[in-house]
Amino acid sequence: MPLHCTASGKLFLSQMNALERNAMLARLTLKKMTYRTLTDAQLLAAELDRLAARGVGIDNEEFVRGMVAVAVPVKDATSGRVLAALAVHAPTARATLNDLLEAVPKMRDTAARLAPLLHAADTAPPG
C-alpha cells in the first residue's frame, strides 16, 4: 500500500518527526493513483502537517476512486509510539468522508483499547 495516498500511510507519515518524515518523503515515488492523489511533495507535507494536528489520516478518493477512508493511531500508552493504525474504508456510494470522520471518536476509543493488546504481543517471549 502506498504511504502518500492512503489514510493509514498518511497517518504514519504525519506521526513521524520532521527528520524522519523528510527522509521518507525523499525516498517515496509520489505516483498518481487517482485525480485526487497529491504528487507534489510540498503539498503533501502541508497535508501531513494538517493531519498531524488532527491526529487522523484521511484518504478522500486518493488511492482508489470511489473509496474514502479515515485512520487513527494505535499508540503505546507509555511511550506514545505508534504501534498500528485503525482504519475504516467505504465506497462513496455508501458513505461520505464526513460520515467516516463522525466515527473518529469511537475509533479513538477502540484504538486505546487495542493498544495494550498490541503492546503485550510485542513484549511476549517467542513460542
In brief, what are we looking at here?
The chain has 127 residues and is α+β, with helices and mostly antiparallel strands.
Describe this structure in words.
By secondary structure, the chain is of the alpha+beta class. The protein is 46% helix and 18% strand. The longest helix has 20 residues, at 104-123.
The average pLDDT is: 93
The count of helical stretches stands at 5
CATH superfamily: GAF domain
The amount of helix comes to 40-55%
Radius of gyration over C-alpha positions, nearest whole angstrom: 15 Å
What is the CATH topology? Beta-Lactamase
Biggest β-sheet description:
3 strands, antiparallel
Return the CATH architecture: 2-Layer Sandwich
The first-level CATH class is given as Alpha Beta
Task: Trace the largest sheet across and list its strands.
Answer: 1-2-3
- Contiguous uncertain segments of 5+ residues: none
Number of domains: 1
Shape: flat
Number of strands: 3
Q: Whole-Å distance between the termini?
A: 30 Å
Structural class: alpha+beta
Helix/strand order:
HHHEEEHH
Q: Which strand-content bin applies to the residues?
A: 15-25%
List the helices and strands and how they pair.
Blueprint: H1 7-15, H2 18-27, H3 41-54, E1 57-60, E2 67-75, E3 82-91, H4 97-102, H5 104-123
Helix pairs in contact: 1-3
Task: Give short descriptive properties of this protein.
Beta-Lactamase; alpha+beta; 127 residues; 3 strands; three-stranded antiparallel β-sheet; single chain; 5 helices
